[in-house]
Design goal:
Strand order of the largest sheet of chain A: 1-2-3
Oligomer: homodimer
Number of strands of chain A: 6
Strand content of chain A: 15-25%
CATH class of chain A: Alpha Beta
Largest interface: A-B, 60 and 60 residues
Shape of chain A: elongated
CATH superfamily of chain A: CBS-domain
CATH architecture of chain A: Roll
Helix content of chain A: 25-40%
Distance between the termini of chain A: 13 Å
Number of domains of chain A: 1
Largest sheet of chain A: 3 strands, mixed
CATH topology of chain A: CBS-domain
């Protein structure tokens, strides 16, 4: 089995996409992260769900987590407002994991090796210059267990 | 909304659980990771799906990823055999992310702050000494977006 058969059709966002829309896709599909492309559709980075969560936390709370407890419920209700008007590119952290990129004809072991080396929860599958899908770590485990 | 209302009933494994079973749970529920407890049921660590993938990769391939390409299909078919007879405790890496632990009455901002600080894709929700559920980063986003 090759990467192209393992790949799933996953939502992809670009650097210029709306940050709100990216959060919605992560939430709706319960994804561990999204592949972020440049304007030409080339995969460029991974946006982990935990990074978007990080963005929601006010900076004074990041500096002193004990302050989170003093926010009242009504303030907490508006925690997602921070995403309004932001672009996906603004959410990507410098320390985000490097995106694992695999070729359409890579084997399951090759995909696993690249994912393992980068400690990346997902891999973008490329056929030449085209992104044809994504393989998550849990999808790879599913395929590895079925094949046993 | 408090953490206890945000928590979902997620599969939990202990240090002594079968590694194969842990991989199956990650695959079946498409989870980014599992909460690992000690024998008394106290959450102790997180087992990311990418860490289990890492375990599947033969050590000589980890040392030299170009060797993955020379494994033939029949060898690749048995990649999951490495999990046989192993315990979950053997899969947990020293460099695994620290488990985010939150209290049942923590608010969404408190949960987000802890998850963000530890860059952890999930948080264990404790009511006193009892694990009552798990909140993933994508679940937290879902709740934050709904509440807006």
């Amino acid at each position: 089995m090759h990467a192209e058969q393992m790949a799933e059709d996953f939502p992809v966002v670009s650097h210029d996409s709306d940050a709100w829309e990216a959060a919605r896709l992560l939430a709706e599909h319960r994804l561990p992260g999204l592949v972020v492309t440049d304007r030409d559709g080339h995969p460029q980075a991974i946006l982990p769900a935990s990074q978007v969560v990080r963005f929601l936390v006010p900076s004074y709370v990041q500096d002193d987590p004990s302050l989170a407890g003093v926010l009242n419920e009504s303030m907490a209700d508006h925690v997602a407002d921070k995403l309004g008007g932001r672009k996906v590119g603004e959410l990507i952290a410098r320390e985000s994991p490097e995106l694992a990129v695999v070729k359409a004809d890579d084997t399951i072991v090759e995909v696993a090796a690249i994912m393992a080396r980068l400690r990346c929860p997902l891999a973008a599958v490329m056929d030449g210059g085209n992104l044809i899908g994504v393989i998550t770590a849990s999808r790879l485990l599913e395929l590895a267990l079925i094949r046993r």
